[in-house]
Amino acid sequence: MDASNAMLQRVEEIIDSYGCKRENIIAIMQDIQAEYKYLSRETLEKIAEKLGIGVAKVYSVATFYENFSLEAKGKYIVKVCNGTACHVRKSQPIYDGLREYLQLEGKQKTSADQLFTLETVACLGACSLAPAMTINDEVHAKMTPESAIALLEDIRRKEAVQNA
User: Fold this and answer.
1) How far apart are CA 90 and CA 136, in angstroms?
2) What residue spans define the domains of the chain?
3) Cα 63 to Cα 66, 73, 78, 145, distances in angstroms
């Protein structure tokens, strides 16, 4: 069984665990995204099929809620805070520096090697640590563009060693 079939089989198991009930669509999507970090086109189609609703309806739910992602995410989710405290302490140059380092263009959020996904968030709730960012929910305080890039470079080195 290839990875795509295994994923769709797991998606079916998740949907079945909710009794294939339409009223559970959000919980179903949350569980699928928790496992795969995003909702693929195939996943949305499978949800529609199993719940007996149109793909457009499933897609509209997935796009209405900001916490759902229709784009594959990297192994490491990097969130740069853009809240007031972080913004006034220069979080934008951190985000810009990371975008350049990861060679992201246009609306692209995930690096070509699928290692990092770069996002901004309205507030991390770590205002006293501004400017702050998280990498897979681990908070990093008083960042600069240079220190943020150094963190990603360190992760890349560790990944290269693990995969060697």
Assistant:
1) 22
2) 3-64, 76-162
3) 7, 16, 21, 31
- pTM of this structure: 0.73
Both tokens assigned to 85? 């405290």
Q: Has domain 76-162 been given CATH number 3.40.30.10?
A: yes
**Residues 78 and 120 sit within 8 Å (Cβ to Cβ):** no
pLDDT tens by residue, 68-81: 988 888 999 999 99
For residue range 38-71, list pLDDT tens digits in order: 999 999 999 999 999 999 999 999 999 878 988 8
Which amino acid does the sequence have at 66? E
How far is it, in rounded angstroms, from Cα 73 to Cα 64? Answer: 19
DSSP string across 2-63: -HHHHHHHHHHHHHHHTTT-GGGHHHHHHHHHHHHSS--HHHHHHHHHHHT--HHHHHHHHH
Q: How far apart are CA 119 and CA 99, in angstroms?
A: 10
Q: Give the torsion sign (CA, 143, 146, 149, 150).
A: negative
For residue 142, which of 134, 133, 130 has the smallest C-alpha distance?
130
